[in-house]
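Posting for a labmate who doesn't have an account.
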Amino acid sequence: MIGFRTPALLDDPLRKYLFRLAHAHGTLLNLVLLAGAICRRLDVVGPARSSLSALRLAVVLLPLGFLFGGLWHYRDDPGLGIFLVPLGAVLLLFAAIQAGLSTRK
């Protein structure tokens, strides 16, 4: 959208910021998901199945929360979609703790 000089994005700094956060979280969390899947496939660490399920949900909920928060927002506050972000963060923490505990075994 920046390349096409879309006024809806360029004229709204909050939308631009939240879209940037959505893109960054989506990209980096997908790399974490790929690393977890490779470790599971090779039985290097073998994170628990619940850990990978929570990680999958976090990879979807965190970027969508930022995206929806930027699409429909109030004057200086993000929209209601931002409430998906804490839920995704809790799932990400759960996945990290589960993966860490599975390495101890």
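Reply:
Got it, the structure tokens are right above this. The two ends are 47 Å apart (CA to CA).
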